[in-house]
Amino acid sequence: MRERTYAMLKPDGVKMGLFPEVVERFKNVGLEITHTKEMVLNEEILKEHYAHVADKPFFPELEKYMLSGPVIAMIVEGEDAVNRVRELMGPTNCKEALPGTIRGDYGSKDDETCRTYNVIHGSDSLENAEIEVNRFFPELKKNKTLKKAIR
Ligand code: CMP
User: Which of 16, 102, 104, 139 could form an SS bridge with 97, CB 3.0 to 4.6 Å?
Assistant: First the structure.
């Protein structure tokens, strides 16, 4: 099924200049990045995005990491996009990610930081993909409403 999902190159990925590499990897499996923007997150959007881990002991470190520089937000479309993006990323813990995955190739290999400094995010379900697309690209929703109002 053709799907759209949300992906986000995190501050370490942006600093390493990985965006062209990510575009290439997505393209090679038939995925298309339809929207992209570089943005600096704030605490409000982070608290919303990471509400499911807000009570975990690693949350302060995660917050520091995600606020340490700009991220690149992406909407990715294609066949089975949610799963394909997650396969390309590899698992959360970079030390468990195989070579050839983005996290396996570029993520932190340090015992302390390998779970947090993991280069890229991808939505974990179609339902969350829609929520995250709307969270990070609210202007698209507004444009839709505007178009409807004009018609
Ligand atoms: P992400 O998949 O974007 O969503 C939750 C983030 O929390 C995850 O990437 C990691 O950056 C971080 N994370 C998840 N589990 C842990 C953990 N056990 N220890 C530290 N950071 C984690």
Answer: 104
